[in-house]
Amino acid sequence: MAILASIQQSSPENRDARAQPARPTQSSAVAWPEWPSQASAPTAPAAPPLPAPTTPPALPEPAEPPEWMPWPRFSAALQRGEPLRAPSARCAHSVASGRRKALLIALNYPGTPAERRCGRNDLERVTQILLRLGFQEEWILKLSDCEPGTDRRETKGRDVTSKSNFVAALQWLTHNVVSGDVLFFHYSGHSALHEEGNALLDAYCPSDFAEAGHLPSRDCYELVSTLPKGVRLTMLVDCCVPCSCPQLPFQWNAQSLQWSEDADASSLAPTAAADIVGLGGASEAEMSPEQLTEALRAEQGPITEAFLQAMQELAARRKGPVTFAELLEGASLRLQGTAHAFLQLSATRLFDPKSRSFRFFDAIETCWTRRRMTEARLMEFHSPMELTMIINAASKLRISDEELYHRFVAHDMTCMGTEAFHVRDISVIVTALARVNCVDAKTMSRFCDGVVPTLPEATPLELARLMYACMSVSCHAHDLFTACVLHNREKASSMDPTALSNAAYAFGQCFEVAEVSHLRYLQKIFRHLRLASVASLPLFLPREIVGLLKTYARWQITFDCGQLCKVADRMLACKKHFDMETTVNGLHCLALLMQRNAVRGESGSSQAAWEAHVGHGRGFVVKVVMVVMQRKCVVEKTGLLPWMLGAVMLDLIRS
């Protein structure tokens, strides 16, 4: 990312200026020669003038973004009819300041036949999420009629959720916004069909809709369509009745996996320059009265609940951001059984939901600007580290341009002919290309040939990352994998217990992407790691023992029963150093590995030997359990320990 930033900040003119030393002052002790000028012509014949280098047009100098107005000042200025200053043209190129502003509107319609319950809960949950994402309380505007004891019939004339305030709040949200700003809009309330001429439009229902009328979604889009390029606006709309709010020009069809233009797109304002993404509920059938009654009594809005739960579950399941497609699928599963059949995605810019990560803080135009600048300056990157960083950054930005990555690869191959790329550089490059699906067999073959010279310098962890990257793209380079196995065997004999445990876990992750043809290499690697670990068992501490056993148990890797008994002996020898957590984890992993060994040795003449090993393991379990149970302070702190140890013993006895 630092390289991408340097691209934007540097220019050929600046580099030429930095290359020329400054003239000395009169007080300098050393007399520097004067630079050639028109007055002092050289004696040699002048060379023909070189063509002037073509430089890209310089962007205007970044300006400070205009200040935002707090809601009380903005509302008062609107009521007084004061003109609101618009951002200057120089601010269109301002550097992204990380400013974030949000508008949350929650309606329960108290004291009316349309009263609902979930508005206040939705408001509080979304507020907490925004605060965790870095939004400041000062710039989160919350309009709600959900305060306890609030009755709109008693607050007429100062209704904060009226139609006029709704429009004013949207104007506040978009006021003085420039490129790089991040906006969020959430609505929890009712929607209705608004009749306008011969057309029926989906519309929001402010608290005074009976007197002032509905607010069509098209009118809201006209307010936000004036946002400048580089602004990101996320709109999350949670209505009891499924509708097309928020209404944006393009809608994603999850069945056909393609974008379609909104049926009423012709009535919308010109396409917005900003990156606006909308999420709302949709249904293919009419809502029944029973479903409406259930929605009014619900304590959580269905769209808000499904969206937040899907985000939390996906974040807990995997590391890193999730794609739009994964978010839509996860939220739609939670909407089953409700009036909303699925979560509807709409946008002002076309993109690939299967590859674009869901973030509140990215904008398509910014990514495309960086892509163009990166492509123009590509040949300036020469060192392996620079090339690795730029390719990795481009793939993490989800820049889906195959031609750009093909140029990356061609430039890499040229540089690899003059300078050796380290194993870690090739691992990162292959992982980045796999992330955007821009790697083929020919490219992998050349990468594998280029990485061979630096294999002896690689650590086992770097070898594991290289094998993981190659296996993730279905690479079957026999010579490369064989070389990795041999180098790992040489280094395993001199590794300390911590390094052995970490290397085992790193190679274990390869099982998640390995194919059948890859298993033989992994089996050899784990055999070498197992032999090296058993040879250095006297140096192992409880944490390292448990870490090693966890890896072998998690991926069901074979651990010879005789060697497993040696591990049990080592655990018994240092039993005084086992705490509650390591004891339970160690016993459970030991039971799983012994159970696997028992299954493998059920037939044949070795049955008696397996039973002897299992008996040895039972004796170890009983002794360790007695030691732990004697620690009354541990048992008093948690009543869960005896139950967990009992479950571990039961697993072992079943084996």
From TrEMBL:
Domain of life: Eukaryota
Compositionally biased residues, Pro residues: 45-64
Bias kind Polar residues: ranges: 1-12
Region feature Disordered, mapped onto this chain: 1-64
InterPro entries: Metacaspase, Pept_C14_caspase
Gene3D superfamilies noted in UniProt: 3.40.50.12660
Domain Peptidase C14 caspase span(s) in chain numbering: 99-335
Family as reported in the entry's similarity comment: Belongs to the peptidase C14B family.
The protein's name in its UniProt record: Peptidase C14 caspase domain-containing protein
Organism classification: Eukaryota, Sar, Alveolata, Dinophyceae, Suessiales
